[in-house]
Specification:
18% strand, 5 strands, 30% helix, alpha/beta
Length: 144
């Protein structure tokens, strides 16, 4: 299926060496190579895409509506990074996307209290925009 290139825009390397792409819908349509799986972190149903996708209902500047479902989606996304190109997407590509990337980092072994800093260093220095998004990452595995 193929993987992302490490230097491609929006691609973040997890500690395991797996690659995942973060993206904002406002930046326009996905560029080739296209993802094989996408997780869309939006308050309303995402646009149709020609690859397999999962919608996590997540209003802007808030938290996922169904947290167990979100955690399951993050676990599935992490698993799929082993064999394909996975992207996490919200409107702007920073708040919800950054939070979800931090959750993947926690699932990949980054201590929860370091995950936001990890994403800010390896993805976008403005990722994870609100205090409650930071708390969500910190408590990801204790709330599950």
């Amino acid at each position: 299926m193929g993987h992302w290139e490490k230097q491609a825009p929006g691609v973040m390397e997890l500690p395991s060496g797996r690659l995942v792409r973060g993206r904002g819908l406002r930046q326009g349509p996905a560029a080739a190579p296209f993802p094989t799986y996408g997780v869309y972190l939006l308050g309303k149903e995402p646009p149709d895409v020609p690859w397999e996708a999962h919608w996590v209902k997540w209003p802007d500047f808030r938290l996922p509506v169904d947290r167990p479902q979100a955690l399951a989606a993050f676990r599935e996304a992490l698993e799929r990074t082993a064999t394909g190109r996975v992207e996490l997407v919200c409107n702007g590509g920073r708040g919800r996307t950054g939070t979800a990337l931090a959750c993947l980092a926690v699932l990949d072994g980054v201590p929860a209290d370091q995950a936001v800093d990890y994403v800010r260093e390896h993805y976008d220095k403005h990722a994870v925009e609100t205090p409650w998004q930071r708390r969500y990452v910190l408590n990801l595995l204790t709330e599950a």
